[in-house]
Amino acid sequence: MTITCGFDFSTQQVKAVIVDNATSSVIDEATVHFDDDLPHYRTVGGCIQDGLRVTSPTLMWVEALDLVLNRILRNGVDMSKIRSISGCGQQHGSVYWKLGSHKLLQNLSPHRPLRDQLASAFATNDSPIWQDSSTHKQCEEIEAAKGGPERLAEITGSRAYERFTGEQIAKIANEQPAVYSRCERISLVSSFAASILIGGYAGIDMADGSGMNLLDISTRTWDEDLLEYCGGPEGPKALRRRLGEPVLSQSVLGSISRYFVERYGFDPECKIVAFTGDNPSTLASFPTQDGDVIVSLGTSDTVFMTLSKPRPSLDGHVFCHPLYSQKFMAMLCYRNGSLARERIRDKHADGSWDRFNSVVEQHEAGCGGRVGFYYFDPEITPRAHGVFRFEDHRLVPEFRLDPSESPYDPRAILESQFLSMRYHAEAIGLSPKRIVVTGGASGNKTIVKVLSNVFGVPVLQTQQVNSAARGGALRAAMALDSEMCLDERSLLLAAVPDTNYSNLYSAMLDEYALLEREVCVLGQF
Ligand code: XUL
Description:
single chain; Nucleotidyltransferase, domain 5; 20 helices; seven-stranded mixed sheet
């Protein structure tokens, strides 16, 4: 039996899964939850928020890697049977390795934990992550530097976004020149994890590299003008050197470092395949067909599908595909996903999903002309911040309720989240024939039913959880064998749309779009 290992370095936790290559199913797994398992880093939801700036302690991720491997070992997994490893990380987050750290990586001693050996490996201890929205100035400048937002989107697949890594690097290069000048290498969260595993700097893969506003997604090389802008006073050459050359997502980077062989019993021949972003990795974990759109309901909600030709626009993103070097993936990202739904659940349903569902079901589709926008944190799609409720097109502080009525917010948040997905998905040319739903909320029947009705298409669920980590293990197997096939039977029908409701939601779309435009003005930040 051959097995592979997949990692997911996500916002709130690190997960490792062991997959049996013959059946492509998960046979073991372990998780390290940052807030609970590593409380000394004092994170909330895996990060530290200071106004619009959001970072995670880089060393916390390092410590989590040892901890999760210890847990896998304790479960009794024979590490010497693992043939290859890959994985993913939350997208856009960046790590700044200090001058000389390549030597630390090459000489890791198996007798001391990674945390002790890499404690001084970073030029800054705080890694900016995808929830950061502090780089509005850099967004305006980078679009100007590349000839406008449309041109930037045409080249890199996206207009400028605050969380994108180029903007984050530009901010550090200009505002923290001492940090930038003592940095020898910049990794994404994905290539950072791969670097530790190979004991040397791993290249940034092209799929995750597409989330930087630096990569030309057609030529798959760094764009010179963008290197010039993001590299600040030290210039484009110095940034190119710090980034290294981008690599194909399916590249075998090398064998696992001696540290893991001697400390955990890995086979010295175990191969490390390039890590990628969590969304590309999730895409790689599904047996999708043409017309399938994946909706991932997690800390962030994301919507994505495979494309043969890039069609970048001012809405959403186009990334290089994580499996096929000639294909692309289109994506939308929402910051106010599960955490916003949980906030409404806690306010109106005492923290119980069952109660939340029954409150949702007490109201008719469309909430009788009520629409709510719940951007508790600055939203990415669209760019707006705040909570806004409309009754018959008029802004109201709260929805009016008869004494016998239950609150509208639970249904209203689901409807506006999914109407937004449908509206923006149509804007980037995604018209699903089926939706495959994944992520924490995908097991909730009421939520899935509303999703199906809003899009007017059937929704399929997967029996497999941990799609992003599993995508890592599957990619690790495919990079070596290529004959691994993903089984359609792992997808089960979870909801079919009710035509009456779907027609009603179709009719609501124009009105929704008008209100969203109003909210973008009211909720500017
Ligand atoms: C995608 C994005 C988020 C993170 C979450 O663009 O910012 O989905 O990848 O981990």
